[in-house]
Write a structure and sequence with these properties.
By secondary structure, this protein is mostly beta strands. Helices cover about 0% and strands about 55% of the residues. It contains no helices and 11 strands. The strands form 2 sheets. Strands 2, 4, 5, 6, 9, 10 and 11 form a 7-stranded mixed β-sheet that branches. Strands 1-3-8-7 form a 4-stranded antiparallel β-sheet, with no helix packed on it. It is globular, with a radius of gyration of 13 Å. It starts with a strand and ends with a strand.
């Protein structure tokens, strides 16, 4: 059974930084793409950043230049480094691995 455990959310002031982590167990990790999504109340979950098994990355326009997704296959972990955070980045962030989702971690950015 695939399990995803996220960590690293919290409350930060505008302009601050956070790093999210998502560790996967129960499946081969290195051959699959990973992604971080985010969701605010009343809105659809949206892709924030993705990374392929080969390390290619993609980002939604609003986070380009501020967020960096990376992975450590030895640790079976994907990271999302978030810099220069803005209040509009406030959301629950979810890790996705194939068809499985993490429980979500809250990121709150105060102005």
């Amino acid at each position: 059974q695939v399990q995803l455990v996220e960590s690293g959310g919290g409350l930060v002031q505008s302009g601050g930084s956070l790093r999210l982590s998502c560790t996967v167990s129960g499946s081969i990790f290195s051959i699959y793409s990973m992604a971080w999504y985010r969701q605010t109340p009343g809105k659809q979950r949206e892709l924030a950043a993705g990374i392929t098994s080969g390390g290619s990355t993609n980002y939604t326009d609003s986070v380009k230049g501020r967020f960096t997704i990376s992975r450590d296959n030895a640790k079976r972990t994907v990271y999302l480094q978030m810099n220069n955070l803005k209040p509009e980045d406030t959301a629950v962030y979810y890790c996705r691995f194939i068809h499985s989702w993490g429980h979500g971690t809250q990121v709150t950015v105060s102005s």
